[in-house]
Amino acid sequence: MKTxxxxxxxxxxxxxLVRETGVSRxxxxxxxxxxxxxFHACLDRYQDSVVTPVFAPVEAEDAxxxxxRAYFDNLLTGFESMDGVGIGCLVGNTLTxxxxxxxxTRKKLEAHxxxxxxxxxxxxxxxxxxxxxxxAADLDDLAxxxxxxxxxxxxxxxxTDDVAILRCYTDTLLASLKARLRGVSR
Length: 186
Description:
InterPro entries: Homeodomain-like_sf, HTH_TetR, Tet_transcr_reg_TetR-rel_C_sf, TetR_C. Keywords: DNA-binding, Transcription, Transcription regulation. It comes from Ruegeria spongiae. Residues 1-50 form the HTH tetR-type domain. Residues 13-32 bind DNA. By secondary structure, the chain is mainly alpha-helical. It has a single domain (40-181), classed as Tetracycline Repressor, domain 2 (Orthogonal Bundle), CATH 1.10.357. Helices cover 73% and strands 0% of the residues. It has helices at 2-7, 14-21, 25-31, 35-59, 65-81, 90-95, 103-128, 136-156, 163-181. Helix 4 packs across helix 5 and helix 4 packs parallel to helix 7. The termini are far apart.
């Protein structure tokens, strides 16, 4: 998973995988039909070992805007602990290089994005309340905006070593979300 995450799905060769895992080519092929099947297993593991722990606050039953902030804060704290050397998001990194014909991989990436959208939408809806200013369509749009913003933030983390820039972006995003939840127009 770390090899795909660091190098990128298309750039990784079977030789890289053999070297990085210490497993022979035959050993890899005995468990997986090829690089794509191994990558899909890594995407599943990424969901379980990376996404679930950090996204749990957003997926909690009573989540609101504070849970969205906690999600970003947790990831930015992780970025700081790596001395500002970001590797981005495995899904986000893959989104930038996926071929439109790779249907099975696209489906996995879409499932990840929908998970984020669903979690963000639920938290935003909770914050909006039953009589809030935002319609269901507005909440859907805002949840997609938040997901796309998150993916962009993690992509940019590969370029900068300055967490202050990432925190400023996160603060601006959250201020924008709060303004919309108060009924302030775009």
